[in-house]
Amino acid sequence: MRQKLKLHLILLLGLCVFINRTHAQLIGGDEDEEEEEEEEEEESVEDETFEEKLQRKNIKQDSSLSVDKLIAKYGYEAEVHHVTTEDGYILTMHRIRSQGSQPFLLQHGLVDSSAGFVVMGPNVSLAYLLADHNYDVWLGNARGNRYSRNHTSLDPDESKFWDFSWHEIGMYDLPAMIDYVLKVTGFKRLHYAGHSQGCTSFFVMCSMRPTYNEKVISMQALAPAVYAKETEDHPYIRAISLYFNSLVGSSIREMFNGEFRFLCRMTEETERLCIEAVFGIVGRNWNEFNRKMFPVILGHYPAGVAAKQVKHFIQIIKSGRFAPYSYSSNKNMLLYRDHQPPRYNLSLVTVPTFVYYSTNDLLCHPRDVESMCDDLGNVTGKYLVPVKEFNHMDFLWAIDVRKMLYQRMLQVLGKLPEDPQGEGRAVRVSRGARGRGLHAI
Ligand SMILES: *[C@@H]1O[C@H](CO)[C@@H](O)[C@H](O)[C@H]1NC(C)=O
Ligand SMILES: *[C@@H]1O[C@H](CO)[C@@H](O)[C@H](O)[C@H]1NC(C)=O
Ligand SMILES: *[C@@H]1O[C@H](CO)[C@@H](O)[C@H](O)[C@H]1NC(C)=O
Ligand SMILES: *[C@@H]1O[C@H](CO)[C@@H](O)[C@H](O)[C@H]1NC(C)=O
Fold it and tell me: Where is the active site (predicted)?
């Protein structure tokens, strides 16, 4: 079974590299999209109720709208901003605007984009929940993803553009976005929540540029992929590192900017295999997976990364050291004055940090998270999601993610009272309640 899954992943990877070369650009609003829409309009499903038809239409629409259009569609005030980093990358930020409210920056994980925080819609996704609780929500996009493929002097067609990892995202992208948000809003500090690599790069920033600790009120760390000693046994990671070993010296710079839509949606069976392939990486949990929404996921993922980001993760998994990118020992000597890069010093991360993690997260083992917590400078608490099957993507995608996870975050943020029973009540905020400074329900 494992073997079979591994094979599928390699096939998918191969396909994705292939599509990658065709430079398919997916951002909403391109011409072929409309053609496609017309074609598909004819397909209809028999015995469909009005609600089902509406839902199907919504799902189709949501899978091709860009993040700002998606936000606007659901009745929130959307904005698009561009931020230029010190090293010239031009990043897109999305905003669910709430003028004068406390800014809250959300930063996505690997192969994701700002879409990750809105993709499941206003009744599920975190960005809307925070907007409902009167935050001014800003969504970052790391260099290289589909919204941040621009530079003052480099072109994404040049390999030089792709010479970065999450180290640079932490060193340049996050500081630029934080400074930008504070400048536009006039606030001195913001809240930050990261998923996976959104945590990794945040800790890089705070340890390498400690003055940024002062600009962040709190860090809500969802599935922080930081220490990864336990991930080494992960069968897919082994497959991916084999894949990279077979590519030594190749010209691959960019990955996962392809489309799985066509392959995955060919038949029921290919769709199921695609979902299993995702589960193979992030942990298997059919219970919380909303299969109806899979087309929307396929429309927004994967959003594109530099191959170096993936290689860097593989390095920390293999070496067991949370450290900058390792080159040949000569180059390391030159760059770091040592044959290996020095570890990031997590004790310099003094932002009050609350950590959320889960037992079925194949990319982020609870033991690794706990040893990370021991090393971070200011952990104010941690929350192990009390659902055994909860996986790495359930932090964004789970059907009941609000009840299982975000409710706890609202308590940590002081927006909901702590529950003495520890048993979660469902969070319900009506749209009408927005903007009225909801502090408790
Ligand atoms: C959100 O949930 C409410 C109540 O359950 C429902 O009326 C509404 O249609 C839902 N909105 C969306 C966009 O699914
Ligand atoms: C890239 O940024 C430049 C500004 O430096 C702008 O003129 C150009 O339109 C941008 N290109 C894209 C594709 O957004
Ligand atoms: C990490 O930072 C702390 C606090 O400044 C310092 O005491 C410690 O020596 C540093 N550790 C390393 C390995 O540099
Ligand atoms: C940790 O955060 C608290 C705020 O929750 C702050 O008062 C304290 O100074 C921080 N500790 C360190 C070591 O920075």
Answer: 196 (nucleophile), 361 (charge relay system), 392 (charge relay system)
